[in-house]
Amino acid sequence: YTVEAGDTYGCIAEKYYGSFDQWQLIYNANAGYPGFSEYGLDVGAQLVLPEVNAANVRAQTHICS
Questions:
Q1: How confident is the model over 7-32, as a mean pLDDT?
Q2: What is the spatial distance between Cα 38 and Cα 54, in angstroms, rounded to a whole number?
Q3: What's the whole-model pTM score?
Q4: Phi and psi at residue 41, in whole multiples of 5°?
Q5: Angstrom distance (rounded) from CA 52 to CA 65
Q6: Contact 3, 24 (CB under 8 A)
Q7: Per-residue confidence (pLDDT) for residue 35, from 0 to 100
Q8: Angle at the Cα of 38 (from 4 to 21), degrees rounded to 5?
Q9: DSSP assignment of 10-64
């Protein structure tokens, strides 16, 4: 995923996984790489979006819609 202006981990998670609460999966998969911090994402940075298995499914949210 290529980060766009205004993106947050939570809103990306909601868009691709259906739940804002999956933000930490994305953060953990990308922590330590340039352009990613807990509180910000650099526009244009490339994020890895990990797979979500049945054990990690969260309730659907509509925070970013």
A1: 91
A2: 25
A3: 0.81
A4: -130, 135
A5: 21
A6: no
A7: 67
A8: 80
A9: HHHHHHHHS-GGGHHHHHHHHTTSTTEETTEE-TTPBPP-----GGG------S-
Token pair in block for residue 20: 């804002």
CA distance readout (Å), 44 to 17, 18, 60, 65: 21, 23, 27, 22
> How high is the pLDDT of residue 54?
75
CA atoms of 24 and 18, how far apart (whole Å): 14
Q: Which two tokens stand for residue 44?
A: 């244009």
pLDDT of residue 47: 92
- pLDDT, tens digit (0-9, with 9 covering 90-100), for 29-60: 987 776 677 677 889 989 999 988 777 778 89
Q: Are 55 and 24 within 8 A, CB to CB?
A: no
